[in-house]
């Protein structure tokens, strides 16, 4: 704690108090023992003057007209001094007069004092020390303590106080205050019923002021300028002579007389009195205690009363420092006074007995503190004299403090505080507080509490500086301890007192603390604090109107939450026109999506820079916050706004009104090359060069009113409009802080507070100030030095660099859906607008979901939409078909590259087909956009990133991006399952190279969601490089396939291999599309948008897998063999199911259309349009498995091997034979073998195989093959071989001809991979008898 060890103001008060104590009748310490009569030797008749003075003294002492001064005894010592001025007077005459005086008054009673041995040299400027300065400047009267300094100083001072004559200009400084009219002392204690005396009145305070002025004036006047050192010695000798020859013998004589009187009194009256008492009472008279005497009125003695003589003797002994004898006399007097119930006299005796006991050398007896307690209590309660009680307490407190009894001293001081005198109470409380802090174990909280009480009383007494000091010292204890209400009270008082003393900075600081700490005050109290604060602040700012703007404490600003946004606000949607979402301050930060946008931008940059990301590439950041990387200076474009979002928090329960709120900034203009092109400009104090205005360089938006409700956190968005390139530094915010008009006023805090708090509520007072935005960067933690110390990196989000002009793209979506069925295709339009003054080029769009949308193929613009399509508003290109071609496939072809899909380019980056690849300033382009609902139901967020560049290369920014997030809700539509299997029929010419059967199951999964009534399968198309649909195998005669809710339909198609001859559609890399139409309109599946979505969804995954496999080159022949065998099973046939859905909404019917894709890879394996979600498996124990060596490819399965060779038996379904004519029936059978692989295959046909199972024999019966029983053949790649066989039957029945076993192996391999070929189904023949 920072506390002053001394309290000089209290010591001055105490000394002034003791010195100005008036003489009273019950004690004689202040009564005069001697009188000095001084006459100048220059007087014509000095002896006569002595006689006159002596008579005057006698008249004053013995006349009843004068109550002041008081005299000790009637026979006062008179000491006659002849004062001779050496320079001016005649020495012989003086000596002659002195001789005459000695004869008249004796050598003991007179003295010749010679002074002024030289003339005054004031004019010469010679500096002579003032011999009286140490006595005059100490205090009003000679500054020696009554107790410690013995009789000399007291007597001298009393004699001087008579002021009968002045010695060398030594006018007494108090002569203006204390009148020389001896009729009454100004502080006379005659009126004992006056509870406070006149000492405490406000007139006295005024008198002290005049005393101080007198002190100042006297301090400036030099004294003793004519005295030489010899004169000094003469004065000292004079005092010594007076003391030892006059005063001390007089005192001794008086003591002897008093002692004789007491002895005689004891011998007569006292002994008679006590004897009679003993006779009647029979023992010692007990002293009555104070409590017993409370109800009796105090007795007053006449001046010559014998009881007072012992008191006189005690006082004389005390004055000559004979403390032991003084104590005995006081003790005896106390008993007499108590017996007589003279309470005032008893209290005085008790008080002086205690002091005498303390001052006795060697301390033979302990200090009787209870004497002092009793005395002060008596003075206060019986005598009603607070002055005497205070004197008693002040003495006792000093004694107790000197003995280290601080606790008792504090209790004594506190007991004397009362309501009648604020100044006295304040001083005593402060001393009590110092007692608490000076104890062995300091009582800090008690110190602070009593300091607060003292400050309060000082304030009431008008001592503002002392009040402020007390509160400030107490604040040290309460600060930061969580006692918020106490802190508020102290700060509030400090603020008020500082304001009254015009210490405005301190007042502002104190009120600031009240407002910024988490206040627990009620709303009305907070409103009062705020109004006082604003009033004080207004006074401060008025003193220096041109000074810097002050820092305001309210509202709080959370600097780290500050966000900076570069660019224009998003336009609102206009009807069907919906602007790209881009990025705005309304969006919450999401680290996952932020990373996605970064990846998309990297992809666009890679494609734009031909596969390489530039080294200086940094992702574009439009919104900077505490989550973004702010280590680099952000780039802003000239003429585009910069929005700063500042988070204001109002901690109070009263609303705050901010007016004229704007940003503070500093700007350094630079040209495009980075050179300085002007001096630094700031809007802090409108520091602009001549002829320029703030808004010419940086337009600053001003929010006229910004209201923050109680305890609310509110964001303010402030804009700047840079009109010149350069470096901008956003420094902070500037605003007027005010209260809302007619805010609640606090009872008891009105205009009488001294701060005119009432004004604020009526006129909404406000003050202008600022708050700086200082954002701490992230903690550094990379190097060892950074890890071991606390270092923070820079945060430059508020220091953008303004770059030259760039193109600015706006994107609008027209008729963009929010809900789609899974697989639904919808056509919308996109409008691209260049709103800047620069042309833009190389417009691309990047998305993680390229299968969701398409701008059409390169050939799409050339093909006009058919008139029939426009009637139904179809998104597809359709052609009316003839009814004859119902089940026959219509073939067309397309190249994936035309649809932006192909090896080597990223399908996720799509060029937007702008006319001439440039969008000029102020122009707009509308392009069609086809959308396909994702196959999975639910809500999908699809991110589009539009990337574009300026036609002119810029040094700082090379490209710009625009973001759009589309939210699409998809509902269930169809689920398509497909399988492919080999056809057993003989290949005709069209299906040379093998044919397949494709089974397609279509199920309507929609449960009347989105108002869907029914689905119609309008077309099924195939798409493959190697296979195509040939025809539909109609299972029913109905041409229209209609599915209502939860219905399932089955379709069957024949697929044949594409002919690889030059005259067909399928040249290298082209895909053949075979359309099988179930309606009367063919959708040309090889054009936009059908082919786009097919290529995007199916081919992108196909390409990815093929690229991965092509990277692993064949390590050995073994691997190649396995691949060849696996390839036999592979069939890359893709199916597109096109459908229409009839939807009823608001009693209107709409037709929705869409498509589903199924990718068939393997013969016999089921494929789905969208893989179903697997049920979450139950939790199982974790198993650790050692991974097997995956470098070797596993052996092909038996199923894969069985598909090397396709076998097919051709025979008549029934054969009639006359068994009665010929017992053996021979039937010709053709075994057709097809090599499905791309290499030569050795085949072994074994006809010796017999059915062993009895069930088979029972059902089918037995037969035999005639002729050669084993054949060995070699089939070339894709070769078809027919083998003629003969079966022999002996009787009628149904037989299974599928008994031949076919073994196959690759021609250049050993017996490896040999396996039996399984027939797909039994080949049954019926043998009839004729």
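Q: What amino acid sequence fits the structure above?
A:
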């Amino acid at each position: 704690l920072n506390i002053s060890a001394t309290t000089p103001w209290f010591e001055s008060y105490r000394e002034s108090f003791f010195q100005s104590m008036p003489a009273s009748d019950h004690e004689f310490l202040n009564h005069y023992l001697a009188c000095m009569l001084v006459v100048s030797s220059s007087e014509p008749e000095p002896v006569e003057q002595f006689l006159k003075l002596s008579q005057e003294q006698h008249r004053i002492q013995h006349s009843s007209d004068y109550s002041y001064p008081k005299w000790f005894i009637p026979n006062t010592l008179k000491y006659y001094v002849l004062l001779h001025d050496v320079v001016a007077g005649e020495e012989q005459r003086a000596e002659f007069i002195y001789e005459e005086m000695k004869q008249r008054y004796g050598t003991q009673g007179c003295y010749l004092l010679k002074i002024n041995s030289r003339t005054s040299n004031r004019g010469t400027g010679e500096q002579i020390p003032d011999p009286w300065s140490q006595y005059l400047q100490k205090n009003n009267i000679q500054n020696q303590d009554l107790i410690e300094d013995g009789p000399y100083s007291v007597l001298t001072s009393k004699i001087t106080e008579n002021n009968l004559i002045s010695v060398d200009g030594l006018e007494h400084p108090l002569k203006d205050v204390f009148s020389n009219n001896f009729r009454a002392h100004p502080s006379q204690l005659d009126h004992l019923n006056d509870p406070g005396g006149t000492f405490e009145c406000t007139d006295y305070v005024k008198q002290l002021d005049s005393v101080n002025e007198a002190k100042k004036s006297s301090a400036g006047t030099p004294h003793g300028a004519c005295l030489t050192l010899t004169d000094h010695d003469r004065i000292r000798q004079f005092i010594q002579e007076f003391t030892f020859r006059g005063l001390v013998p007089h005192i001794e004589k008086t003591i002897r007389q008093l002692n004789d009187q007491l002895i005689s009194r004891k011998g007569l009256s006292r002994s008679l009195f006590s004897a009679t008492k003993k006779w009647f009472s029979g023992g010692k008279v007990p002293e009555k205690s104070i409590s017993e005497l409370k109800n009796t009125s105090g007795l007053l003695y006449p001046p010559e009363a014998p009881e007072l003589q012992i008191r006189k003797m005690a006082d004389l002994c005390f004055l000559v420092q004979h403390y032991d004898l003084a104590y005995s006399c006081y003790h005896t007097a106390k008993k007499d006074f108590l017996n007589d119930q003279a309470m005032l006299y008893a209290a005085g005796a008790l008080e002086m007995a205690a002091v005498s006991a303390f001052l006795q050398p060697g301390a033979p007896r302990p200090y009787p503190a209870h004497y002092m307690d009793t005395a002060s209590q008596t003075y206060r309660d019986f005598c009603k004299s607070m002055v005497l009680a205070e004197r008693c307490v002040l003495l006792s407190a000093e004694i107790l403090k000197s003995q280290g009894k601080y606790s008792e001293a504090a209790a004594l001081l506190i007991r004397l505080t009362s309501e009648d005198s604020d100044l006295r109470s304040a001083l005593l409380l402060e001393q009590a507080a110092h007692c608490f802090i000076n104890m062995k174990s300091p009582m800090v909280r008690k110190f602070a509490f009593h300091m607060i009480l003292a400050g309060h009383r000082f304030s009431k007494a008008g001592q503002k500086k002392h009040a402020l000091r007390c509160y400030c010292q107490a604040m040290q204890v309460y600060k930061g301890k969580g006692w918020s209400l106490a802190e508020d009270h102290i700060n509030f008082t400090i603020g008020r007192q500082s304001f009254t003393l015009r210490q405005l900075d301190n007042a502002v600081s104190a009120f600031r603390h009240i407002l910024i700490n988490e206040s627990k005050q009620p709303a009305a109290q907070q409103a009062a604090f705020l109004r006082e604060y604003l009033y004080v602040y207004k006074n401060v700012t008025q003193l220096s109107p041109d000074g810097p703007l002050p820092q305001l404490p309210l509202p709080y600003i959370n600097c780290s939450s500050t966000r900076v946004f570069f660019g224009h606000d998003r336009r609102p949607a206009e009807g069907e026109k919906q602007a790209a979402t881009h990025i705005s301050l309304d969006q919450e930060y999401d680290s996952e999506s932020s990373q996605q946008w970064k990846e998309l931008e990297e992809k666009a940059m890679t494609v734009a820079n031909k596969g390489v990301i530039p080294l200086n590439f940094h992702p574009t950041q439009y919104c900077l916050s505490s989550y973004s990387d702010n280590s680099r200076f952000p780039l802003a474009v000239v003429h585009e706004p910069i929005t700063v979002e500042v988070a204001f928090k109002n901690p109070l329960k009263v609303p705050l009104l901010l007016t004229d709120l704007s940003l503070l900034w500093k700007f350094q203009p630079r040209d495009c090359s980075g050179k300085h092109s002007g001096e630094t400009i700031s809007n802090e104090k409108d520091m602009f060069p001549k002829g320029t205005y703030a808004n010419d360089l940086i337009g600053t938006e001003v929010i006229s009113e910004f209201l923050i409700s109680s305890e609310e956190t509110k964001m303010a968005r402030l804009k700047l409009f840079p009109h010149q390139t350069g470096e901008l530094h956003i420094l902070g915010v500037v605003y007027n802080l005010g209260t809302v008009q007619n805010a609640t006023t606090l009872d008891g805090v009105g205009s009488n507070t001294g701060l005119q708090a009432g004004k604020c509520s009526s006129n909404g007072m406000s003050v202008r100030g600022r708050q700086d935005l200082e954002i701490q960067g992230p903690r550094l933690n990379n190097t060892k030095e950074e890890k071991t110390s606390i270092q923070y990196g820079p945060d430059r989000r508020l220091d953008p660099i303004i770059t030259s002009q760039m193109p600015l793209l706006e994107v609008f979506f027209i008729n963009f859906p929010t809900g789609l069925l899974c697989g639904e295709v919808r056509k919308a339009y996109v409008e691209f607008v260049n709103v800047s003054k620069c042309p833009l080029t190389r417009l691309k769009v990047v998305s993680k979901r390229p299968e969701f949308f398409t701008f059409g193929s390169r050939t799409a613009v050339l093909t006009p939409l058919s008139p029939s399509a426009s009637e139904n508003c179809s998104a597809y290109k359709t052609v009316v078909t003839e009814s004859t071609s119902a089940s026959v496939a219509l073939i067309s072809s397309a190249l994936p590259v035309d649809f932006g899909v192909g090896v080597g380019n990223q399908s996720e980056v799509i060029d937007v087909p702008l006319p001439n690849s440039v969008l000029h300033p102020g122009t707009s382009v509308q392009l069609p956009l086809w959308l396909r609902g994702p196959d999975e139901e639910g809500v999908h967020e699809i991110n589009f990133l539009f990337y574009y560049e300026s036609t002119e290369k810029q040094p700082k920014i090379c490209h710009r991006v625009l973001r759009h997030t589309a939210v699409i809700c998809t509902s269930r539509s169809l689920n398509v399952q497909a399988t492919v299997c080999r056809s057993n029929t003989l290949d005709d010419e069209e299906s040379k190279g093998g044919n397949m059967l494709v089974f397609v199951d279509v199920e309507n999964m929609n449960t009347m969601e989105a108002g869907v009534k029914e689905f119609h399968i309008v077309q099924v198309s195939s798409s493959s490089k190697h296979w195509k649909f040939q025809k539909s195998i109609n299972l029913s005669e109905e041409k229209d396939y209609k599915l209502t809710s939860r219905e399932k339909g089955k379709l069957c198609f024949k697929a044949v291999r594409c002919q690889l001859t030059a005259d067909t559609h399928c040249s290298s890399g082209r895909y053949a599309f075979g359309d099988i139409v179930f309606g009367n309109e063919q959708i040309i599946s090889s054009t936009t948008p059908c082919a786009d979505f097919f290529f995007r969804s199916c081919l992108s995954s196909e390409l990815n897998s093929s690229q991965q496999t092509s990277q692993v080159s064949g390590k050995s022949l073994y691997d190649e063999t396995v691949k060849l065998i696996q390839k036999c099973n592979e069939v890359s046939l893709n199916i597109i199911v096109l459908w229409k859905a009839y939807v009823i909404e608001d009693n209107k019917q709409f037709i929705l259309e869409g498509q589903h894709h199924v990718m068939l890879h393997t013969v016999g394996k089921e494929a789905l349009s969208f893989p179903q979600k697997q049920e979450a498996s139950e939790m199982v124990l974790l198993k650790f498995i050692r991974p097997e060596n995956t470098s070797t490819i596993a052996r092909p399965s038996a199923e894969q091997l069985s598909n090397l060779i396709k076998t097919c038996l051709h025979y008549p379904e029934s054969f009639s034979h006359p068994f009665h004519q010929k017992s053996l029936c021979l039937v010709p059978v053709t075994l057709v073998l097809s090599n499905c692989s791309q290499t030569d295959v050795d085949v072994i046909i074994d006809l010796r195989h017999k059915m062993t199972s009895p069930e088979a024999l029972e059902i089918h019966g037995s037969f035999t093959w005639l002729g050669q029983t084993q054949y060995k053949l070699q089939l070339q790649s894709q070769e078809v071989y027919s083998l003629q066989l003969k079966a022999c039957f002996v009787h009628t029945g149904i037989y299974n001809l599928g008994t031949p076993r076919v073994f196959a192996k690759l021609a250049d391999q050993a017996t490896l991979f040999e396996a039996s070929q399984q027939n797909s189904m039994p080949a049954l023949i019926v043998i009839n008898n004729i």
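Q: And what stands out in the fold?
A: The chain has a mean pLDDT of 78.
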